[in-house]
Write a structure and sequence with these properties.
Layout: H1 6-23, E1 42-43, E2 46-47, E3 52-55, H2 66-72, E4 79-82, E5 85-88, E6 91-93, E7 101-104, E8 112-116, H3 132-135, E9 139-141, E10 147-149, E11 152-155, E12 173-175, E13 180-183, E14 186-188, E15 194-196, E16 206-210, E17 213-216, E18 218-223, E19 226-230, E20 233-236, E21 248-253, E22 263-266, E23 269-272, E24 279-282, E25 296-300, E26 303-304, E27 327-331, H4 351-354, H5 359-362
Length: 370
Amino acid sequence: MPSPLSRRNVLLTGAAAGTALALSAVPAQAGHRPRGPFGRYGSPSARLTPRTLYVHPRGAGDFTGVQAAVTAATGTGRTLVIAPGVYRETVSVDADRTGMTWLGASEDPADVVIVYHNAAGTPRPDGSGTLGTSGSATTTLRPDGFTARWITFANDWLRTDLPGTSGTQAVALKVQGDRSAFVHCRFLGHQDTLYADSISLDTFARQYFAHCYVEGDVDFVFGRATAVFEHCHFRTLIRPDLTAAPYGFVFAPSTAGANPHGYLVTRSRISSEAPDGSYKLARPWVPSSDPTARPMLTVRDTRLGAGIDAVAPYTNMSSGHPWQEQRFAEYRNSGPGAVITVPGNRPQLTRAEAAAHTPGTYLGGRRPRG
């Protein structure tokens, strides 16, 4: 069984190795020129475009931190090229930075890590209470049209960091913008890792995640966005603090009742380092801020590993909002966690119904290149 501290160590080791590679000379190969810390994306002396800024942890770029670059990147359509390294900071991007792109320069998400260690129960610096779930986020993205490639977003707060706290939510990324896209990214945390949300209750933000990796334990993909996860890998973690199932829940959507599209998981897989059957696939989140929410999740053409409780994959978050009254459905899933033993516990789409649950339908015809 992995140590609860091992995840933090692995996270930092991978990124540190990437930093060392970026700072050293890369041997020339036949037919190829050596690449610097920004790979094929130029440098401050040879910018990819005039609107490109470069981030390097040891000063080889325009900025040494991501937040400093974001603050300087005023206007729309700005690009940040981020060199390998561990960027231990919180980052917040205002809604007016529309069309922003972040690129991990090495094109390996393990090399570029944005990480911090706040939780919902962490006291505010001014003594005015605790941070709350949203305030715990390492990275908060509000603009429309945001794109990230080859980046790791992480929150390495551990329950052992603040024993006895009830505020154990620790968000790695909160994204609220419409037309957001994350390709070849990682999202690492424990509880509430990835907050796929919208800017307001009446805004239906569309978000696309392709070839991404997400790990956690309790409700680690949650929120009210219209979010498509395609070719993604979700991994449930061991819970050293628990001795009995359920250890947690993969999805906790809070889709607005008026929104026809919630979370869609397609051509993906769910694996686990926890014992068989110790995780629920989902539970509905009906927040106090939107008591009319009707959470929606469709999981299709996806392999569900043995960590998922195949007999009863869904459960309630609140008895007043039973999962059976929400919009949960599956279609053509495989693996031991997808075996149907109690049909009433596993709502299935018909072939005709499944035709309406595609990335194109959910994203309004806009499907970014994976």
